[in-house]
Amino acid sequence: MRIINSEEITGAVKEMCIGANCHLNQDIRRALENGVKTEESEISRSILKNLIKNADIADKKEVPICQDTGMAVFFVEIGKEVFVEGDTITEAINKGVAQGYTDGYLRKSVVADPIDRKNTKDNTPAVIYYDFVEGDRIKLTFAPKGFGSENKSALKMLNPSDGLDGIVDFVIDTVRKAGANPCPPMVVGVGIGGTMDKCAQLAKKALTRAADSHNENPFYAKLEDELLKKINLLGIGPQGMGGTTTALGVNIEVYPTHIAGLPAAVNINCHATRHAVREI
Description:
alpha/beta; four-stranded mixed sheet; 8 helices; 10 strands
């Protein structure tokens, strides 16, 4: 049994909140730089160059890449040989979020109730998903989720008879309807299977993978490439200005489902697609 003090978790979360919001991940930078090389529209190429310039300024001055520093989402893997001493792990994470968003001067965007809309003033509570695994470590995956892109996400309870074509049509239609609103070039997370709620979780978790990674299953890896090609033929382009770089990547995650269902979810992220991973 390994004992981890909750203060260590809080400190790590604080650093992740500031770091992920101010420093562009290398997978996204590579994708943007590749877009500059392949984009056919001159206007859109200049937009991609400006997005990279913006990221460089944010990195140097440690200011947010985007003013919407998102709602804090965490995927947490807890080793079965770990005991957290002090606060509960949920309390520790929320303390870290509060410290990170306050001390890092990040925008606080969370309201305590969806109807009365009173701001919590520290961006808590976080949305946290837990998974218990082998080992004596805790793995924290953080994704600040801006709502310009979140609002354009969608879920559909397809029939098994809709099959693969139904999933493809749903994904493409969701991106088409989103248009320029998610601040493209976007990264598209797709969840397939499970239940309604599990499917949505899969789509969000897919966005924590590198934009240039692939599903381990060759079938879904091929489908990711096919969807990316179809999306980039939509002509939406960077910031909706047209071109061939509407998306930087498509990531798919799947889960077993019921014989009577075929749930599919699309979770869209903006060009920054911020994420950070820390193991304790």
